[in-house]
Amino acid sequence: MRGLGLESYYRRRVLDPAARAIRPDGLSPRFDFTSYVTTLPDGTSSLTLAIDGLHCAACVWLIESVLSRLPGVVSGRVNMTTRRLRLLWRTSEADPQELVARIVALGYRLTPFDEAAADDEGEARLRGLLRAMAVAGFAAGNVMLLSVSVWAGHAQDMGPATRDLMHWISALIAVPAIAYAGQPFFRPAIAALSAGRVNMDVPISLAVILATGMSLLQTATSQPHAWFDSAITLLFFLLAGRYLDARSRGRARGVAANLLALRVRAVTAVEAGGGMRVIAPTDVKAGMTVMVAAGERIPVDGAIASGTSDIDTAAITGESIPCPARPGDRVMAGTVNLTGPLRITVDSVGENTTLAEILRLVETAEQGRARYVALADRVARLYAPAVHSLALVAFVGWLLSGVGWQASLLVAIAVLIITCPCALALAVPAVQVAAAGRLLQGGVLVKSATALERLAEADTVVFDKTGTLTEGHPVLLRDGNWSEDDLAEAAALAAASRHPLARALAAATPGARPAEAVEEIPGSGLRLGAVRLGSRDWCCAGPAEEADGPELWFARPGMPVLRFAFRNEPRRDAGEVVAALQRMGYRVELLSGDRPAVAGAMAGRLGIAYWRGGCTPAAKAARLRQLAAAGHRVCMVGDGLNDAPALRLAHVSLSPAEAMEIAQNAADAVFQGDRLHPVLELLTVARRARRLVLQNLGLAFAYNAVTIPLAMAGLVTPLIAALAMSGSSILVVGNALRLGRGPRR
Amino acid sequence: MSVLLYLIPIAVGLGLLGLVAFLWALKSGQFDDMDGAASRILFDDDPPEGDKDKTDNP
Q1: In terms of CB atoms within 10 Å, which of A227, A291, A438, A482 comes out highest?
Q2: Which residues contact A198 (CB under 8 A, 6 or more apart)?
Q3: A303 touches chain B (CB under 8 A)
Q4: Where is mean pLDDT largest: A176-190, A466-480, A484-498, A604-618?
Q5: Which of A164, A201, A464, A594 does the annotation list as catalytic?
Q6: Hey, what domains does chain A have and what are their CATH numbers?
């Protein structure tokens, strides 16, 4: 960095003390970017990458400055909102691997991001909404200006000719604007009606179209009142609400997509001639041999052709102790190879893998949640018929009183306009935007539109153990069977290994230096001369007994053999969160794939009364069905592949950001960080959000209770309608914004 | 009141101008990265200190 003359980076950066330090990750594979590069017709190529480790604007400046100095680079632009880098270079003059290597050398992690997926329909929809909002905003401002002069003219002495001119100009602006900007509401309304349903868009569309149509009629017949301003202002408010809602959700989904992209791993295939080739996981065929380095996730189902190692199967089975693997053993996709390089012969791909089996379970579990109807639409189902019959009553009533059908129709339409659910349609999205914004700041990404409503209904919280309640790495148990000197000696060996137990041992001794010439025997342990650290039989400590937890044995010539016991520690605040949930009245349950003894011990430590161990993915799903049948609304928190069917089946589900891709896709919300507290925060915010939504709906109904009688009495003028509508909208949005404040624990 | 005949078109025209400017800005991607743009302005690009050839060893 110094050589580049960019030292000023250090003056400019603003470090967030809570953020973890960037370190070059020795594990990240050398990815083959060629399949992600798009070549443009003008001789340049582009590549989009997700960036990890971006702290502040100085990082953006640093990356862009470095790139701008490299030859052949046309542009390298970092988008700080989406945390993506878009590289554009002249194809013949630069090599993408080289460009990426420069950024990686600065300490950032980069992963290719599929541009087709990045530019998805959500983005296009968001732009469409913003365009519609701009058009509606422009029209609303100008029509309102004209309307104010008409209202003033009613009080003073504006001539009918001037008034009609004003109305005609308003129509000229408002009608095309409504035709364009109303589409985000008209289309879903038509879709709902043709499916025989009613949603919030139906009364909105009806009111806007009727108000416009009637105003045109009034203008054509030179009547004193026209409603163009109400129609277009209403549309503008609603578009603003819908845009903010879509944006906050799109943002959460974008961050979640980045998290997943950052963990994409390529597969290293061994060719017949012995050469290596990096290919995409989808290109793997049965019969191929695949190379998996120590520390990598195994991408395929197969049998070990050569090499010995330890396999961490926590993601598939929930088992917390790694098991040794030798040539001929079967391994499953999704497990992690810990200690030694393996060559694996692929025996099944696609439909026959364990992964596909779990995916099938996920798919069959999917239907339940799709039936959930959002609160706003449930209200609309009652509201729309009620409003429409009120309008009908007004029409028939005035007709019977003998004022003629035209005047009666005017009153009926006035009723429809004044009851147009402006406040009602804003009541829910405004709260959801405030809630999602608050949660996003705390590192919680809410992906599903109805997740908050479903969360607020949950009465049972089911946790997975490994990786959810625990962080997934073991901690040395200080049981007093050994001295600090023993520990220091063992740690010197352990520091040379990537095995999780060895790492835990090294982590227990701050400043442990790896001893030189340590030899790692995969599946057994570590050796330095005659000193051995590893499994029980490898250290000659007698025949294996059933261990009550993970353990390492330490043998030195002429000294008694020592045992280091480990325990999977729960997340720092797990006990606190479980206790708080129970205080709030939730029934907390533990479902683990780990052995019953281990699951039971964890449940006992955290004070969880209901627990089950040894659950297969299907057993977890079955338990959730059982709970649902008993009338419980379950919130499932899990991270492994084995949790994915249960996550999909639950009323609502959460998963930590380190979770497997399938689990994250199945979950409604993803939380970042190494604490469990976001679960509590999510449930609390969801409950508060529901309370605010109900308050808002109450406010909207109160407003209607006042204005509907006025409208039915034929007293509503455009001025009253505009005031009532804006006033109630502002009230509802202001109430929703209260969610952003309040205690943040 | 005849003043309205040209004042209203001027007002609407100015509004349209603003709308077109906004749509153009939206189309050219100026709203894609609100966070980055806010802080990007704070960094002025000084000419790099020292020789440009040194860029080969970061």
Answers
A1: A227
A2: A192, A380, A381, A384, A385
A3: no
A4: A176-190
A5: A464
A6: 2-119 (3.30.70.100), 122-254+375-431+688-735 (no CATH), 267-364 (2.70.150.10), 432-471+571-687 (3.40.50.1000), 473-569 (3.40.1110.10)
